[in-house]
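Lab notebook page, bench 4
Experiment: in silico fold of construct C2
Operator: M.H.
Input chain length: 464 residues
Purpose: comparison with the prior construct
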Amino acid sequence: MKITSYTIADPVPGAAQTAAGTVPYRFTFETAGFGCAAQITAFCYVKEDAAPGRPVLFATNGGPGSSVAWLHLGLLGPRRLKLENPVAPSAVPPFELEDNPHCLLDLCDLVLMDPPGAGFSDEPDYEKEKDLCSVDGDAAAVALFMEEWLIRHGRVNDPIYFAGESYGTIRAPALCDALFGGPFSGGRKLAALSLSGIFFLGTAFTTTASILTQPQCEESVRNLLSAAATTAYHHPDRFPSPEAAAEEAWDFAPRYLAALFAGRALPEEERKAAAETLSRLTCLPADKLLQDGLRYTMKDYRAAVLPGQEVGAYDGRYVMDGLAVPGSLPMPGMTDPIADDPAMGRYCPAFCGGMGELRKLLSLPEKNYSLINFTVNSSWQYASSRTAVASLENAMRRNPSMRLFFGSGLYDLVTVAGNVRYTLNQSRLPLDRVTVKEYRSGHMPYLGEETASQLEADIRAFIR
């Protein structure tokens, strides 16, 4: 795999309003070509007259096949999407951008990347470049782009950080291997680049059994923390705070796991007591929980929190009336996990409109900008040479100064906070170099001014 072309559009000057004041910057839109058709494109914001040693923060979102629009317009870019009500945004134009008070350009430069097929990046040839739709192949391509960017901009000797959201948190561990390189890496070269730190937002690598060598505990147990926090958000009379509900659920988790292990051998009185506790934490009827062996699905939970309504999978604060109408042939009973989700179905139009406004502002390509490319998503190969945890353990072993930051939304019902806690406890990662934060938000913990401010402060403290 190699980069066969690289273009940099004419620079666009700008000024970011940051916590440290106004920061003049130079914006460039950059494109790397990979052989047949595939591209990686990037939105690059570099401070004018920056001193040597200034950190560079590279970032991607997830999917796979997702663009970086979410991090770009939600958290990192100098301009952000203006949302009058972040948990009930308008679904129709006009959409606006505004100065982003949480921009980090006073602290580091920003390279916001769209992998092949995402955003403005052209799709790979799925026959000839299918390796780009795999964990290791994707990481190798992103690593090549990052190395090329650092060389072209004279930044090879500056600290490198990476922020990944959702699938971007699966990309990040594989990227550690690809950046360093070696005989078994995707690039098959020793580039010897190390990251100073990684930001994991909406951590996805903790959601599947394949990421650990040890067996995972029950999914319903790991989901309980986020379910309880979301219950507290919608029913504040039940708990002192969402955090208190989350901690009660986490304290109950070992007893819950033991009850599930015992199954029918659990004394009836203890079964009923466990069902009553679960019912208070999840809003699911105790009788149904007993009938289902004390297990529940997130789909069941999301429909039970507010009768007659459904809460969002990606952010439990978002609500839609009724339940989605399922499809007919060829997918009977299916609902769209994105368009029909009360969260994604509400804020996607605003992000799409925001990218349209950014196109005009920065003279970006006059072509469709795909928020998520589901052809890439459905073509993805998740088999990898290492588990995510193993890649991180090795990276931190060879780089004693590398640090990890995990930011979870308490109301994220897809990549739940309990998975992060559980995975870290089962790993061999040096926890004195790991920061874990939880926010009153969802899959994108920067939606909402209060949590955006908290996240910005935590990111700044981590980099400094």
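Observations: The chain has two domains: 5-215+346-463, 243-338. The domain at 5-215+346-463 is CATH 3.40.50.1820 (Rossmann fold).
Next step: discuss at group meeting.
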